[in-house]
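Input record (one chain):
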Amino acid sequence: MMNVSRPAVRPVIAVPVGPTGGANDRPPVRMKDIQGMPGTTGGLILRLSQFVSSLISLSVMLTTPDFHSFTAFCGLVFAVSLQSLWSLSLFIMDAYALLVGRSLGNHLVVRCFTVGDGITCLLTFAAASASAGISVLINDLDKCDGSHCTRFQTATAMAFISWLAVFPSFFLNFWSLATH
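The corresponding structure, as predicted from the sequence alone:
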């Protein structure tokens, strides 16, 4: 007999609503239903905000001519590039799950999301923190050339916004793993 893997995307089971018509007829909230989890509208919005903010940070940094002079800014470019790719791929998966009415609540899928979110969360935060420190140092030493400091600060701020968007995803996925 051949081992066949089971699909990672499972159908959402609808909870029947009682015919009483009272205020307590709402279905109970399950962990899969919490907005921000994979396969929910909140999760889709979080992934989109992660992608957009990291893409803005990346594009601002790449259009600054001398970002490669500082290692922290090169690290920021790497971190937000990884964040952009990760968020875009999970945005596509969330959109697909919502379109076909499937849940991404499989334990293995949630574990993969948690590990990926944790890695990108830590990398983005570390790179944004290092870039913020270098931006302040450059500014304090009066080594700013025109609008470069403003561009560095904008890219760093957008990286922090990306981190703020990825942290709830990581936290909710981690919480889901811990309660399983």
